[in-house]
Amino acid sequence: MNKTLREARAFAAGLSSALQEHPELLHGVQPFIIPPHTALAAVAEELAKPSGADVPGRGSAVRLGAQNAHWEDDGAWTGEISVPQVADAGAELVEIGHSERREHFGETIETTRLKVASTLRHGLVPLLCIGEPAQVQERGETAAYILDQARGALRGLPADQLSRVLIAYEPIWAIGAQGRPATPAELREPFEVLSREYAGQVQALLYGGSVSPENALEMLLIPGVQGLFVGRAAWTLQGYLQILRIAAATGKPEVSGLQ
Ligand code: PGA
Q1: Strands 93-96, 204-208: pairing kind
Q2: pLDDT in tens, 162-206
Q3: 122 carries an active-site annotation
């Protein structure tokens, strides 16, 4: 719940021109931004303006996402917004199951499954967020917990659909201003189990939670981490570009994002 229309437009316009000026920031990197629903259409419009950073045949090099969408296409769901509606506003990705949605808005493994299905049905990319609370980590049960979330949401998907999914592992205890940045040692096992199950099956495995310019490189170097999901540190264009620069320099085919 950040950024007004004006702020979101300014960010998108600034990002397009920075990428035009510094195409090396796109080296091996697929950037995405996930603004609030109110700003989707305006940001799409900014990104659609022709720029030297465009990818031939596809337009902007930056992918646009929605932070949530309902699983039904339309109907009596006052206050909700569907996948066809976010697609109509320009979204290409749909973020599903962020821990704040699970904690405050009753998102369950079953609703994440329905949303993944709807997103794929409409040709968009699901960005499934998974992650355990602190108590689960303290009990040493992270692997089982996050596999349960991922398997539940992705159950029954044929290989060609699974291959379009992005998974962001975000331990709840590491997210936001109240969060504690994870150490690389704490991320090793979760990425080991996620890689065993999903590497090569999904589009990419991302890490999120207190990512910053200070720790982005060490996060990207953890085996199994293929990209980043960045909140606060990328709210400013300068912060976003700093992290993009780090990702581009690693030479991995990374994905980085801003919510
Ligand atoms: P953060 O947020 O990078 O500010 O911790 C991550 C998120 O929104 O999930």
Answers
A1: unpaired
A2: 999 999 999 999 999 999 999 999 999 999 999 999 999 999 999
A3: no
Q: Which residues contact 96 (CB under 8 A, 6 or more apart)?
A: 68, 69, 112, 115, 116, 119, 126, 127, 128, 129, 153
Taking the CA of residue 259 as reference, the ligand 1 atom at the shortest distance is 8
Beta bridge partners of 255: 30, 227
Residue ranges of domains in the chain = 5-48+80-257
Q: Under a CB-based contact definition with an 8 Å cutoff, are residues 112 and 152 in contact?
A: yes
Pairing outcome for strands 227-230 and 29-33: unpaired
CB 107 within 8 A of CB 140: no
Taking a C-beta distance cutoff of 8 angstroms, is the pair 184, 207 a contact? Answer: no
- Cα of 172 vs centre of ligand 1, distance in Å, is 9
Pocket of ligand 1 (CB under 6 A): 98, 170, 175-176, 179, 208-211, 230-233, 259
Q: How far is 119 from 138, CA to CA, in rounded Å?
A: 34
- 208 Cα: distance to centroid of ligand 1 (angstroms): 6
The tens digit of pLDDT for each residue in 51-99 reads 767 777 677 899 999 999 999 999 999 999 999 999 999 999 999 999 9
CATH 3.20.20.70 fits 5-48+80-257, yes or no: yes
- The residue count of the chain comes to 259
The verdict on whether 98 is a catalytic residue reads yes
Reported as a single tens digit per residue, the pLDDT across 149-169 is: 999 999 999 999 999 999 999
